[in-house]
Amino acid sequence: MKFEKLNENKIRITFNHGDLQKNNVDVHSFMSNSIESQSLFLTMLDEAEREVGFITDNYKLCVEAIALSNGTFILTVTRIEKEVLKSNRVQARRKNLSVSSAKLIYKFSNFDDFCNFENFVLHSLPKFADYISDTNSLYQYKDSFFLVLQNFNPEFAPILSSIISEFAVCVEASDCTLQKIKEYATFVTENALHKIH
User: Fold this and answer.
1) What are the structural domains, with CATH classification, of the chain?
2) Low-confidence ranges of the chain (pLDDT < 50)
3) How do residues 155-175 score in pLDDT, each as one tens digit?
4) Which residues contact 171 (CB under 8 A, 6 or more apart)?
5) Are the C-beta atoms of residues 104 and 173 closer than 8 Å to each other?
6) What residues are paired with 16 via a beta bridge?
7) CA-CA distance, 41 to 43, in Å (whole number)?
8) Do residues 124 and 74 lie in contact, with contact meaning Cβ atoms separated by under 8 Å?
9) Distance (Å, rounded) from C-alpha 75 to C-alpha 15?
10) Can you list the pairs that 76-83 forms with residues at least 24 positions away whose Cβ atoms lie under 8 Å?
11) Segment (H or E) for 4
């Protein structure tokens, strides 16, 4: 586990599956905000205070999580001072209104990879599967399959990224990419996570 102080109010914590195992936490528990994952996060903050002097008492925290395909996790933790929170309150609300417009596109190399992802989500994270059930469509182009998620709340992107990176790769989710998929690929189904077994 590595701690880097980026500035006075921001640190980066880098860790991997081995670090989770040492703390008796599996990756799925960690990403589902379980009691074990919360305890591990508090332990990380204590260690960050000792190693790089990053104190979090009496601060609100903003946490960004990224899961890389090699099994590495990166947490960026930012301290938010009360004055900043007050001055940005209106702006933050405006940002929250726009999250429904987000879209994500993932490419699966083959149908088996998609089925493995679907089975994992349905059995391990059924509530998450229900959340994205109305926002996803599946397309096929040659041997590849594209899962298109529209009106996706970016709050859930780190969770999705950590799960799906084992099965698919993220592609640029621009309007142009989506148009090409709709034009050249074959539409399979909407709500693919519940219709394909």
Assistant:
1) 2-96 (no CATH), 100-195 (3.30.70.1950)
2) 83-101
3) 666 777 777 877 888 887 777
4) 105, 106, 107, 146, 177
5) yes
6) 72
7) 5
8) no
9) 9
10) 76/6, 76/10, 76/11, 76/12, 76/13, 77/10, 77/11, 77/12, 77/13, 77/45, 77/48, 78/9, 78/10, 79/9, 79/10, 79/54, 80/9, 81/9
11) strand 2-7
Q: CB–CB of 151/135 below 8 Å?
A: yes
100, 105, 153, 154 from 95: Cα distances, Å: 10, 22, 12, 11
What sign does the CA torsion over 86, 87, 90, 93 have?
Answer: negative
3-class DSSP assignment, residue 82: helix
State the amino acid at position 112 in one-letter form.
D
pTM (two decimals): 0.48
pLDDT by residue (tens digit) across 126-153?
666 666 656 788 999 999 999 888 776 6
- At residue 57, the pLDDT reads 82
Task: Name the token pair of 86.
Answer: 């007050």
User: Which tokens in the block code for residue 121?
Assistant: 């989500």
